[in-house]
Amino acid sequence: MPLDSLTGAMPFYVTTPIFYVNAAPHLGHAYTTIAADVMARHMRQRGEDVFFLTGTDEHGEPVALAAEAQGMTPRELADKNAERFKALMPQLHASNDFFIRTSDPEHEAKVQEVLQRVHDNGHVYKGLYEGWYCPRCADFKSENEQGPGHTCLIHEIELTREQEENWFFRLSTFQKPLEELLQTEFVQPAARRNEAIAFVAQGLQDVSLTRGKITWGVRVPWDPGHVFYVWFDALLNYYTALSYARDGEDITERFWGEPTTHLIGKDILKFHTIYWPALLMAADLPLPRRVFVHGFLLGGDGRKMSKSLGNVLDPFEVIERFGVDALRFYLMRDVSFGEDGSVSMEGVESRYTTELANDLGNLASRTIKMVQRYRDGAVPDVPLDEGLQRDFAALSGDFCRAMDDFRVSDALEVVWERVRRLNAFVEEQAPWQLAKDEARAGDLDRALASLVEGLRTVGVMLVPYLPERMGALLDALNVEDRTLRAFGEGARVERVGDLEPLFPRIDRAAAA
Ligand code: MSP
Hints:
By secondary structure, the protein is an alpha/beta fold. It has helices at residues 27-45, 61-69, 74-91, 105-120, 175-181, 190-201, 230-235, 237-244, 252-255, 269-282, 315-322, 324-334, 345-375, 386-392, 395-404, 408-429, 431-434, 441-462, 467-476, 508-511; strands at 11-15, 19-20, 49-57, 98-101, 124-134, 139-141, 146-147, 151-152, 160-169, 187-188, 207-208, 210-211, 227-228, 260-265, 290-294, 297-298, 341-342. Strand 14, helix 10 (269-282) and strand 15 (290-294) form a beta-alpha-beta unit. The structure holds 5'-O-[(L-methionyl)-sulphamoyl]adenosine.
């Protein structure tokens, strides 16, 4: 398939969940952010009109409780920790276009406007709520969401019995439209869609839209003694951000609805696949195109990561030892995206050595060195090897299709097959033998030109995963155009320059 048919300036809007400011940034936050960033960078390379949003979720009881425990006001804690999440983005080389804070006055005003509309449309009523509540999830738990003895299945803490007068959102009236929505591709992958379907099939109950006992939140315009329940305030970030993210410009029309993809972890599926579309319907707003649900990163022993088990992979330690690109690559490569997977420092080290340093790093340095040694750095302008051309023919189409489905690890494997193919090609062609025989100068030209074109092709495709290192590679190849171009379809590389080792050997003693 020609690449042109897969590209074009279509609006594409990708979001991460917004992060609670009551905890420090950890690997789970990095994971979601990196995956969204890979997608945003890829779509930009296809010439799409991309907007990538991330930010912090600052209101609600978990933050208020954490602030109290640290002797701070919620705002002080939010200000302090929002900075840490903001600082995380450049550390991960995330290319987000905006960073929303739910304490932004523009967000708060828009939340009030939308939820007032939900109220005026008749989807809100006052009632008494009684139920089992997890302060860490900021969520009331139904019977089948509870562990033994009224405990939270996620946090393994005791739930509290709460009773209060609240404004309710008539979620139950959206039973039918949600059942219909969940028959579509709205939730991906399919296994997660089934979880959402099963939840709706139990019969939807109305949910609290406001809280009366809490003050740290967005005031309810029709009842100022209440603030909105933090999940509704938080979900609306995806919509409100577009109205003020760009100075003097409202980009809601351009990016909201069909162009929108939400990326989330499986623990927040109910909110994004049930509450969120129902709320949008109640406010007469368009729905996002899809919610893609990824799995959980587990400790190397396959158990939930926890400090007490000593199985936590610290993203900052990985960055320090192997560089940020290695972290990005490892997380996208080692865990099949959408599923749960175990991660460990040994795993990072092994992928780094076998795939980054050996497969890709060696291919790049050998190729460049051979062009320098045998052709003084000038890449021969000759027809490319036909066999290699055939092996690369399906690459762009397969790669883009995997990306379209948010299968970021499958897409990486599609490229890696070609990285391995190029290494095999070096061995088959043995340019060092061809160089000894003047009569085979044409074969050497073809081999070198094909290798460089292969390297350019995979280098450009890998930019979203390895932005820094592939930037260095493409600089050495003097490639200016970094949009996706299939093998043999990009402007040909004319000269190669020097390249430092892309993935230097890590001295184990120094690294430990
Ligand atoms: N504030 C809410 C989201 C509101 S979105 C309108 C929240 N925040 S969070 O900081 O707790 O989590 C943010 C994301 O990190 C979630 O998608 C969650 O799934 C993800 N992860 C947290 N730990 C994780 C792992 N161990 N593995 C993978 N992702 C996990 O939820």
